[in-house]
Amino acid sequence: MTVMSIGNIVKKIMNMKFRVFCCLVLPLFASGCFSAGGWNRKALHPASEGWSSYRGQKARIAVSDFELNTSGLTTELGQALKEYFVSILAGTNHFILVAPTETDLIISAGVVEFVPENSGGKSGVGGGGSAASNFMGGLLGTPLNKATMQLNLRIVDRPTSSVISSRDIQSQAVENPENKINTPRDKAFKSGLSEYAGTPMGKVIHECLLEAARYTVSNVPQNYYKD
Hints:
Layout: H1 3-24, H2 26-30, E1 59-63, E2 67-68, H3 75-91, E3 95-97, E4 105-122, H4 133-136, E5 143-157, E6 162-175, H5 200-219
Parallel strand pairs: 1-3, 1-4, 2-4
Antiparallel strand pairs: 4-5, 5-6
């Protein structure tokens, strides 16, 4: 086999990798962001879950202070996250939010990852730092803003301290500079979480806490619904 033919084979392989990259990755950038964890992207507000029409019995629950199990989080931010989560839970119409001493059911959440901004590679063709740079030669592109958040959510029976149900909930968003991310116009993003309004982290916070509320609605046992 000649040197020329080997060069042609390598060139064909590189072209094939480029086409695969374009088909799989570029559509994500064009959409503005993507999320990990199987989120329902249309369900960006509790009302879209059909919760507003719920008129059945309600469970009395309490939400404990968020456990801050990662760096970069302040007590004030933890409280803002808790208050936002409580507001979403209240909007489901499934719960009466009370003090821990007034209920047998505690919703506990620990923040194990909170990264508002991280290098997510580059947009464009084969951006430096991206997975594509290994075979694209590290061509320059526009830096991307990537945010991630992960919660450990637990539904706890207070008298026995037993965990009824638990789940790790994670969300991730990557912003294309040409397509700004819109966060919901919730009160939380005008007060305690205002610095994240219109950012990938704002979308991540909203999706993570909305999924936490969805999980809570689905996994609180029926025998706790009394009121």
